Amino acid sequence: MLPKLCESQEVCGRVSAAGAAATGLKAGTPVVAGAGDQAAGATGMGIMAPGAVSATIGTSGVVFAATDKPALDPKGRLHTFCHAAPGRWHVMGVIKLQAFPCDGSAINSAPARMTGAIPMRD
User: Fold this and answer.
1) Residue 91: Cβ within 10 Å count
2) Which of 63, 78, 100, 105 is the least buried, fewest Cβ under 10 Å from its Cβ?
3) Cβ burial 106-116 (10 Å sphere, 16+ → b, else e)
4) CA atoms within 13 A on the CB side of 121
């Protein structure tokens, strides 16, 4: 009922004739499993070895750490996922709305409150 689980770089299928007709891709083109944005970005930054860490700030703030085995947080504060690299795992902590938008809506953002730019509400 569920599809086969694949590593990020594994070919997990091929573009069908119907898919080719709908997209303009060549039938039979390999389809790979891929990776989430943080795991893909961490791979590009070389965050592969256990203990390597990155921090990114955008629409969310993420601290990402590579590990060689699942590291579960019993309190649910960190996420544990398969890394984009075979045989690796990663843990990450995320805060949403980390970047300041340019449309004036920063008044409702967590960073503005945390930095004291606007007062915290009860």
Assistant:
1) 20
2) 105
3) beebebbeeee
4) 5
Catalytic residue among 37, 68, 73, 103: 37
Amino acid identity at 116: G
Q: If residue 82 lies in a helix (H) or strand (E), which one and from where to where? A: strand 79-82
Question: Closest by alpha carbon to 68, among 89, 39, 98?
Answer: 89
User: Does 37 qualify as catalytic in the annotation?
Assistant: yes
Joined tokens for residue 78 = 């960190």
Q: Which residue bears the tokens 């009922």?
A: 1
User: 65-121, pLDDT tens digit by residue?
Assistant: 999 999 988 988 899 999 998 889 999 998 876 455 555 554 455 555 555 555 555
